[in-house]
């Protein structure tokens, strides 16, 4: 299910959250990177049909989201994991998934129950499937969230900041799960965690201030950091070098800084191979 | 699961009936699990049941007709128990925003009106269940006390005619009003309204007490018992809403209460739809 936005704009009163966004998202896993407040969630909510655009066009799988019929057609093939998804504390995961399944139009009771059980197993929640969700940890709640997004075998999966707040093990497990889902689907992963995109996506877009500032292959985004990523070693107590410090590690010979800067930050700075994070930071500096 | 299998599992969903029933069923389940619903109902019903005045159904003569006895119980419970229901239902719609489930619900292929209607049905059913149980307990007590097994049937009928329309009326307002005012403020206003509009004698202050739109079921109880239950039809403010009690006025009262309960839902649906489409 390909996504095409043209001149997409969204305003909240006097604040413009999206400025004429043009984006073409093919099938497969696609990353959407950006700092908090970049407009990612607004874009996700528009793609999920939760929020209408103020201007421009959005077509998902050929359906125009500006029309009720188009929105319904997309929502019938959509799996959406909103940022900070809440759950009903008085329901168990099995009941919650059954409820969402019914609202997704999965009317065949036996098939729906079988799918719910499969998904609970996929996200490793079978053991607590009958327990009420009050008191579930953040990781368990996210797993319920991703399971509900997968109900009905959606052709488009939109996940908004799915790994924020998860412990490293949960994050890796979540990323692997999402990658495995891509296949012939479109999985749109919105995140401010660069590592998540680096590990899962071939293509990505970067948003800043409500605008798309980069679209293309992730490897190309890494290359933005070429010639702008440096390592500088300073003595203890010496101020960090100019530029954006990506990391600082104290060792016996001094503090090793990884710096992104368009110019050599100091005479002894050594150019290093950039990572996606370096490329992203370099892009944000432009 | 393959895409083909996914399509087969997914129903047409055109009518929306299955979605409506799903929302109603799960809203009922979630609300019925709320301990406060049962606790508040039990406390209020016990207090009013034990400390009912000399006009209460417990003090009716042994040969009092069954409809009069059970209409009396329905009125008695209907005076205080819906207070608890209004309190409990006040957060059911707004909690979707508070809990963070609203964005997910809005992304599902269900018309917002169906979601609202399902929550309403679930709310009415969840408050109707303890009310029905109360009536069955009272009916059981009266069956033993008076030795008339038909009383249980009258208990169910009195619940349906006297209590249920009022519960539907309360559910409509309790679900939607907290969207405009906060839930705590709604609860305060609701208690004030309840005493003013249902129990304040019409000759004391202009009040809705004793009118067709009194949700405690004054007209229906008067019709069932064949006597003036409380204030139905007593002259007062808005006299056109105070016809003589009888079958016609009781049915009119039921219809008005049901329609008035739906009115806030329609207004809410319209306002939310406009807000949603206002880009």
From TrEMBL, chain A:
Keywords: ATP-binding, Nucleotide-binding, Transport. CDD domains: ABC_drug_resistance_like. SMART domains: AAA. GO terms for molecular function: ATP binding. Belongs to the ABC transporter superfamily. This is ABC transporter ATP-binding protein. InterPro entries: AAA+_ATPase, ABC_transporter-like_ATP-bd, ABC_transporter-like_CS, P-loop_NTPase. It comes from Plantactinospora endophytica. PANTHER family: ABC TRANSPORTER, ATP-BINDING PROTEIN. Gene3D superfamilies: P-loop containing nucleotide triphosphate hydrolases (3.40.50.300).
Automatic annotation (TrEMBL), chain B:
The chain crosses the membrane at residues 36-53, 73-94, 114-138, 150-170, 177-196, 247-267. It comes from the Bacteria. Keywords: Membrane, Transmembrane, Transmembrane helix. This is ABC transporter permease. It comes from Plantactinospora endophytica. The lineage of its organism: Bacteria, Bacillati, Actinomycetota, Actinomycetes, Micromonosporales.
């Amino acid at each position: 299910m390909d996504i095409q936005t043209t001149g997409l704009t969204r305003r909240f009163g006097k604040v413009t959250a999206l400025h004429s966004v043009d984006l073409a998202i093919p099938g497969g896993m696609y990353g959407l990177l950006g700092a908090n407040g970049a407009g990612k969630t607004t874009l996700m909510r528009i793609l999920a049909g939760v929020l209408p655009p103020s201007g421009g066009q959005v077509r998902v799988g050929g359906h125009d989201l500006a029309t009720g019929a188009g929105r319904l057609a997309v929502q019938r093939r959509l799996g959406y994991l909103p940022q900070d998804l809440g759950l009903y504390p008085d329901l168990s995961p099995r009941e919650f998934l059954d409820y969402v399944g019914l609202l997704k139009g999965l009317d065949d009771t036996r098939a729906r129950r079988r799918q719910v059980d499969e998904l609970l197993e996929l996200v490793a929640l079978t053991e607590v499937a009958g327990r009420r969700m009050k008191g579930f940890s953040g990781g368990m709640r996210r797993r319920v969230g991703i399971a509900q997004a997968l109900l009905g075998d959606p052709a488009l999966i939109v996940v908004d900041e799915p790994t924020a707040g998860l412990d490293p093990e949960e994050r890796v497990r979540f990323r692997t799960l999402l990658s495995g889902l891509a296949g012939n689907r479109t999985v749109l992963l919105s995140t401010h965690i660069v590592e998540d995109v680096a590990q899962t996506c071939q293509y990505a877009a970067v948003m800043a201030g409500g605008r798309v500032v980069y679209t293309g292959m992730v490897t190309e985004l890494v290359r933005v950091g070429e010639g702008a990523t440096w390592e500088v070693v300073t003595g203890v107590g010496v101020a960090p070098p100019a530029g954006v410090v990506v990391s600082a590690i104290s060792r016996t010979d001094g503090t090793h800084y990884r710096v992104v800067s368009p110019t050599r930050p100091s005479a002894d700075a050594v150019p290093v191979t950039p990572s996606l994070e370096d490329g992203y930071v370099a892009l944000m500096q432009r | 699961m393959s895409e083909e299998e996914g399509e087969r599992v997914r129903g047409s969903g055109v009518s929306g009936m299955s979605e409506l029933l799903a929302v109603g069923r799960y809203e009922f389940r979630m609300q019925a699990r709320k301990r406060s619903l049962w606790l508040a109902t039990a406390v209020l019903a016990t207090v009013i049941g034990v400390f009912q005045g000399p006009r209460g159904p417990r003090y009716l003569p042994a040969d009092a007709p069954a409809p009069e006895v059970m209409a009396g119980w329905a009125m008695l419970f209907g005076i205080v128990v819906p207070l608890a229901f209004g309190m409990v239902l006040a957060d059911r719609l707004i909690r979707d925003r508070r809990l963070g489930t609203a964005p997910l619900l809005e992304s599902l292929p269900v018309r917002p009106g169906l979601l609202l209607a399902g929550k309403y049905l679930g709310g009415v059913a969840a408050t109707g269940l303890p009310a029905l149980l109360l009536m069955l307990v009272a009916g059981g007590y009266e069956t033993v006390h008076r030795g008339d097994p038909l009383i249980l049937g009258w208990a169910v009928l009195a619940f349906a005619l006297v209590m249920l329309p009022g519960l539907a009326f309360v559910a409509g307002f309790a679900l939607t009003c907290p969207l405009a005012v906060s839930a705590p403020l709604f609860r305060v206003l609701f208690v004030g309204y309840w005493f003013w509009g249902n129990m304040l004698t019409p000759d004391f202050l202009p009040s809705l007490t004793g009118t067709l739109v009194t949700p405690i079921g004054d007209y229906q109880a008067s019709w069932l018992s064949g006597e003036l239950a409380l204030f139905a039809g007593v002259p007062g403010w808005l006299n056109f809403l105070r016809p003589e009690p009888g079958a016609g006025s009781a049915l009119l009262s039921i219809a008005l209460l049901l329609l008035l309960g739906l009115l806030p839902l329609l207004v809410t649906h319209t306002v939310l739809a406009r807000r949603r489409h206002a880009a």
